[in-house]
Amino acid sequence: MELIDPLYIGFDLSTQQLKALVATSELKVVQVAKFDFDTDSCGFAIKNGVITNEVEHEIFAPVSMWIQALDGVLRMLKDQGLDFSHVKGVSGAGQQHGSVYWSLDAEARLTALEKDKTLEEQLYEAFSHPFSPNWQDATPLDISDVCGMNIWNIKRNTFDDRLLELCAGSFGVEDLKLKLGDVAQDGGMHLGKIAKYFVERYSFNPDCTVIPSTGDNPATILALPLRPSDAIVSLGTSTTFLMSTPHYKPDTSTHFFNHPTTPGLYMFMLCYKNGSLAREQVRDAIDSKLGKNNSSDPWTNFDRAVLSTPSMGQKTGSDLMKMGLFFPRPEIVPNLRDGQWRFGYDPKADTLTESDSGWDRPLDEARAIVESQMLSLRLRSRGLTQNPSADIPAQPQRVYLVGGGSRNKAIAQLAGEILGGIDGVYRLDVGENACALGAAYKAVWGLKRQSGQTFEDFISRRWREEEFVQKIADGYQRERQPGWPKMEDQVANAIEIAWNHSSDQAIKAQAFDYLNQLRSDPSGWQVCLSIFIKTPRHSDIVRHVALEVVNSAAEAGLIDSQGLGLVKDSLMAYLLQFYGSGGPVPDTSNIQNKIAQTITFLFSVLYPIGWVTFFDDLLRLTSETQSSSLWDNLPGIIFYLRVINSVHDEIGDVLVSRSRAEQDKANTLKDLIRERDMRKIANSWQEILSQWQNRNEQVVEMSLKAVGSWVSWIDIALVVNQPMLDLLFRQLSRAQKPDLRDGEEKVRDSAIDVFTEIIGKKMKAEDKIDMIMFLDLESIVAQLSRSPPLHDNRFTSKYDTDFAETVAKLVNITVVDIVRALDCESSDIQTKEKASILLQSFLPHILRFFSDEYDEICSTVIPCVNDLLSYSRKISKSNPPLAAQHSTMLLPILKAIISKMRYDETSSWGDEDGETDEAEFQELRKRLHILQQIIATANEQLYIDVVWDVVGTTFVNIRQAGTRLDWRDLDLALHEMFLFGDLAVRAGDLYTKNKPNNIAAERLIEMMLRMVESDIRSFTHPATQLQYMEICVRYSSFFEHHTRLIPGVLESFLQLVHHPTKKVKTRSWYLFQRLVKHLRTHIGNIAQTVIEALGDLLVIQAEVPSAGSDADEMSSEDHEGSADAVFNCQLYLFEAVGSICSTIAVPPDKQALYAQSVMNLIFVDMEMNLASAKSNDERSLLQIHHDIMALGTLARGFSDWMPGTNAPSTIPPVPEISEAFFQVSEVTLVALESLKMSFNIRTASRFAFSRLIGVLGSRILPQLPRWIDGLLNQTSSKDEMALFLRLLDQVIFGFKGEIYGILDTLLTPFLQRVFSGIADPASGTDDEIQLAELKREYLNFLLAVLNNDLGSVIISQANQPIFEIVIATIELFAKDVDDFTTAKMAFLVLSKMASSWGGPDIAPDPSNGVYITQSALPGFSHFMITRFSPLCWALPITPTFNSKDAQARQALAEAGGLQKTIYSKTGAEYVQYLRDRELPGMGMGADLIEEYLDALSRMDMKGFRHFFQSFIQRLSA
Predict the structure, then answer these.
(1) Which of the listed residues 113, 762, 1370, 1386 has the most CB atoms within 10 Å of its CB?
(2) Cβ atoms of 89 and 206 closer than 8 Å
(3) Cis omega (within 30 of 0) for bond into 225
């Protein structure tokens, strides 16, 4: 235990002095010493602490003077009697830009200090530069200034490499970083014990700890526990305005710093060079004129001049206002040269003139200089302060003055008048020593804090305001702040204009701009709050918008805690006045909801930290008199319930998406409510329901809604108790009434919702089953189902679907929990027996609502049916005896499912008005299909039998009833046939070795026979015709085994492709192509017949999109009936024609003839439109686009072959076909060459090129230069280049034996176009994505060239000029820390180059297997070592590189692979280079180097790749 309170020293090295302040751990100042540079230093030609070179505008200080001062100030403290052995910690504060440059031998000198000599004697030569620049220095920024100010990236919390690079010059960034050293991230960290020199010379305690020092301004804000609403004004040599804030809002006129002690906080600062020195010049001029006063205070004359001069020097209203700027030094803000300017402002004429006319100099200048300095502070801090209350403008809560000027009462008074300070202006008792005080506090905190304790918390616990500060001036004075009522009128007027439909649009736009500025203005909310609560009231729209501004400002963090308290008090006073008196409702519902929203936000912020009476305050509104226990105030009750429901929405609604932090906050609030207020809230619901159950439906409904929403997260006993249940059952009884009053339906449904929420509450399975039985829910549901609205009115227009859906929700949640109890392994036998009984009793209710005619009611119980069926499927495998007991439930459910699959009688398929209903029905079918699949898995035979019965019965009825069968029944049968394939073709096909692969397949084959052989084609309903085609295509393998049926099916399809309904027709084009493709080998020579049948459909008619449609996307399929969508479907016909014309049954010459017959029509059309297309006729361009797309698609139909593949299913086209399609290539090129500036033409041509490769083979190679010229030009996008590069990869792979000569010729011009695309800067997110894709496709192209033994083309004589550019681009990509995928690919390319051109392996890798001897490219070994190897380090040394990122690790692995490849080619030469140059240059020591080289030489490729990843991660750590 320490008998003597330990001491802590804070040093302040300012411009004119070094101070040392000694404080106790309780923050009491015990000693102060000051070493004044002008007075106390020896041997330095200084004035005001600095040396001034007026010629060069340089201002600097001798570093040795500071060293001298350190010994001097410690000697002063010793002379004062300080016992240094009690000093436990020291810290300091240094002036801005004060930079000291140690020499190389400084460390040795520091460790050899002798106690008998001064620091100045021993360290005189320890500095590489004898002077330090001063903050007043106005020379261009050099390394000192930059290092002292503008090279730290606040957001990233590290040095900014771009700025370091500007400063480092030829020495390099790493050298500069080494000089700068590490930055202490923890402001209270222990740097080490005090040096031996100070222990021996001054008797410091050897355990005295050094805490990191900070800057003078950051130290100032540590001089007290500064609140976010307070400001510090430092009146020293410079004038500085400081605040602490959690918001980072950088601005050109302010400085933002990381907080010196507290992560997450920032210090912002306004800094001016011209502070006390400027004021002193005016003071001295006044003294020169008046004569020095006999007072001991040198500022007496100055103060009298300030206080005797009226504001702005304006003695009467007609006088000019005087304003001046006094800058003896060049100023920072504003950025102005030195000088003096005086102005006169005429408020009547609104004119400002530079003139000293009317100035009584220098007396008027006393007030003018203080006013100008304070006004500048207010002007530039106005966006950073907030309004203390609704009718007070933005200003600090308090203004603290520190520094030498803080003792000047006149300055303090003007600071209050101009800056404000609602609580006044204060001075720290040691205000002129604030920096030293902050440094001392920092030392105390660093050594005494608890783990995780913030500086603010630590200091505030020890801070005794009455001992440290004194009020020296009043702050804000209302009479000096006119204009508030006028601003209210302006805001109200702007809102009226903005929301008035008849307002002039220009004026309306101005009003919206004004209101948007108001929203972002930190002071805007006070005006709006005043508008809202003002009487007489503004219009509803004005009040609604005004309160919305307040609400959004609160949610955006623009209102501090004090401001939120003001909003709370204002709104609660308003509510008590207008809602607590029992009078008429004062506000409309939307206004009430907006108030409730704001009150709820205030609750979320203030309830945990002080507003513990929140619910009591609201409950006061529910009675007309405060002493009454009656719930008799209707407006107050309704508003109370609004807030109760709003609070749940804020913290309890599980459907609201919340971040982790938001959810934690919500959970905390719920815990507090449960602890403090839950019983009184639950009691309020019961009392309100009891007293208002027969008096007001709105109150009852809102009460029930509150009970239902809150029950999920409160004690269930607060709701499930006999008094509350009695009230709930009374509300349920309304269901039996044949006629309900207006509003009673909502009450009834809300009561049911309460039971639904009770059952939905999480609890153990056994407790949930007991709850269901205790509430007797089956009886409740039965009574509700038999009620007149659901039973008597079911098949009438009076059927209450909302009521039915509400009951269905209750059934659904109940059955879900019953099944969960059955499926829960921890449920005991008794619980499962109870659950089984309940399930049987609820089955009729499940079927009742599942089979309801209205799909939304059916959909409501699908989740519980899904759970029930899933449980049945599970036990069918794990517990067959139990499954047998449940099997009786499956048949009625399956029949209900199939019944719901049927279109109802009111549906009208195909009508535009019914598109939404159709989409919803198809979505329901998908959900029902899932249920069918579950049943099929649980009881396959049952499913097969039921579907067989449905389908078989339908086809029997077709034969008996002919076309009189309802189309809905046929559609249902066909739909079930289509779905049946999930079971029948689950092995991939209907057949295995020409036999049906299972029982389901056998049944499906029989269904197919019945379908095809029936008279189904006589049914002309579009729905059944579409189903028929879909089935034929899905089960096309059926026709491969029943080829006799193919002609009839094709005939049907050829009829349906002309269907009058566009939806059927366009879908049939796709299905026809699919069917033809599947049955291609079984189709005879019917090409001519098909071409003739499809002739009218092959005519291309381009339609220019109408105005307002999206004409940019040629492939848009947003609308099935759009011209683009129809054309895209039409292309399937061209592919189908190609497939039919190229079957083995058609001779090659006939194939070419048929192809030519289709092509010629398109050729003629292109020729007709080419001239007008050249003139940029939009329709002609679109027509040629369509023509080219059709030709390319026709080619795809003729051949699936791709060069380079040997798949037996695809063979190269016959010569006759190649010859025919060579014309297509030529025609397309002609069009492309003429219209290559058109994006759409290039798109179509690129598509055609990709399809022609398969039919032309190597014949396309000589045309490659023309294709490249047309597809890649100055208007081609990065995306187009990337897509074409991908096609070229395919060409290179397919024709690698034939393409060398052509590739050698075109490589340079081709890559130059790619380079231009890469060099073009990205202009947005989409462009950045396209650029990244282009880079990767470029690298893929290089890999394709290298991997296909064509690498020599890159270094050929013709392409040598671009080799360096190729390498440079790869180097650039390999260093891209923002795109690891591209970097990884770049290393792959470099590795492939190394293995291709590096010659035979000198150091073989055993994992590489057999070696292929290669000849080395002369000089390439040295090139690899000096150019490739350094790239492996360039990526990981980037400051933002994250070695733990998965993609970064992949890039590192490839970088390691590159080094291993270089080593295999160069061996000892590479090892020597790494040992002597590269690795030492990375700052590695000998041990690390040897470890690295050992791994490189010893490990195989895979091992070293992993080693390099982990090695970099170790270095990063």
Answers:
(1) 1386
(2) no
(3) no
